[in-house]
Write a structure and sequence with these properties.
Oligomer: heterodimer
Structural class of chain B: mainly alpha
Largest sheet of chain B: none
Order of helices and strands of chain B: HHHHHHHHHHHHHH
Number of domains of chain A: 1
Order of helices and strands of chain A: HHHHHHHHHHEEHH
Number of helices of chain B: 14
Number of helices of chain A: 12
Shape of chain A: globular
Radius of gyration of chain B: 24 Å
Strand content of chain A: under 5%
Distance between the termini of chain B: 46 Å
Number of strands of chain B: 0
Chain lengths: 304, 285
Amino acid sequence: MRKAKHPPVFWLFLAPVLVAFVLVIVVPFLLGVYYSFTNWSATARIGENLAFIGFGNYAKILKDPSFAYSFMLTVVYTILNMIAINVIAFSLAMLVTQRLKGRNVYRAGFFVPNLIGGLILGYIWQFIFNNAVPSIGTLLGFDSWAAAENLVLAKSATALLALVVVGAWQYAGYIMVIYVAAIENIPQELIEAAQIDGASPLRRLFAITLPMTSQAFTITLFLTLVNSFKQFDVNVSLTAGGPAVMFMDQPIYGTQLLAMNIYNQGFKSNDMAGGQARAVIFFLVLAIVSVIQVSVNKKKEIEL
Amino acid sequence: MTDRRRGAIALEILAVLLFLLFLFPFFIVLVNAAKIPFEITQSPLTFPAEWRKIVDNMVTIWTSVNIRYSQSFLSSVIITAASLVLLNLLASQAAWALVRTKTKLSAGIFITFVAAMVIPFQIVMFPLLTWFREIAQFTGIRLLRSYAGIVLAYIGFGMSQSIFMFHGFIKSIPLELEEAATIDGCTPRQIFFKIIFPILKPIHATVLVLNGIWIWNDYLLPLLILGKGNSVMTIPLAVSNFAGAYVKQWDLILTAILMAMIPIVIFFLIAQKSIIKGMVAGSIK
């Protein structure tokens, strides 16, 4: 007797996840792409005849200053955040792989912010920037720090930097752990040989540590790229998109990253189709950029 | 003192300073959660006049009818626990079925799951709401503002990565083990639950940690599916509902934040090693 190609247990074990997958991801994804080409609104029902308007929503987005601004802001934020996180994380990893007495305690301390959700971290830092920083200013003799217009979150440029500070603080410890694993995997003989040859610490960093951890960089850059680009929680709780700025003669949110722009377009402006078209662009850009990043990094990896 | 020793001490001091700098925000939360509003505006950087106030603030948060913190805490526990149990059970079953059935269809299903990991939540969030509302219309099963809906959503969104991680682990389990059991007359289900499931213990821990931290802290998905101020709320929703209000009662907001952090920090102190290991394993795969 021939064995069944797919025994009953195969379907029995797969059925629940397939159902969940179709209900939660496949159907909404396909609906979402379709809706972005229609005049869909929040009240529209599935099966109702929606007017197909082709690339109408996309054409509108290209002319919308708030999207252009959010897009540029997100690119700047992503670049700054990637640099900040990776530089800090790698430096911390170098530090905690030295022979330090309390290195496990330091590692744990740097890691902790990562366990707490972005939303809560954002509120903590809102308090720090609005209350603790002016107080520190007074202690140091800079009374002007307490003036409402000088608060970090009161200007869009410094508020963006504040988002980077919180992003780096949240994520550096996590990325650090990945670098630590990579650094500890470097064969000790290599480092000893370099030391005997008289290579300076800086030389050892560039000739050994960085090339030998290149695989870790593929991962860390990917993670920081995707997470920065999708940032939403900290944005909501730290700045809520504010303060307002003028852009192309229109008042718009000064620190509204793309994820928040999509959310607000759908729920605050009640333009679901427009929000959905933004989400499709968001998905395509993220997919393309991360594929490029991974393939560029892969080429630079050293085969061990 | 040699140069080397001096260098080592300098590094140690640098590490301690950075450590304190990293924990400074938590210090700010802790000292201000024990103050009255006037003290906070006067001196947010100093120790509180009376630490006892922290208990009063915590009681206020826990019992407040407006914030509904205790209720949200319970909901968060239910949602996280139910999602984790189901994710671990269903994903490990599915991964085992996919590894042990070597057909084109099986490979295709696996690739589809993996590919779905790149889909950002933003692209499915609007239609998901309409679709869930529609399902409720046809079947009578309420998915919005309900435990069933949010747990289903977490299973859907967490499934890909969980299956992927179980899949990698199960591939390394020798087939002989299962063949011997088959000869002894075990059914496939018995093989999975009696033999495979116990072997998966380390990877179960990794998947639990990874999904647990994500689900416990998640904000956007509960915001959409449960909404703020409805009967079922999670802790992040309750905190944002309260902290986002126009008048900022920082003494109570920071207390609520402190209370939201305590369970995670305790969990971290108990299971530090497996948490760090789990989160790194999740990233590298």
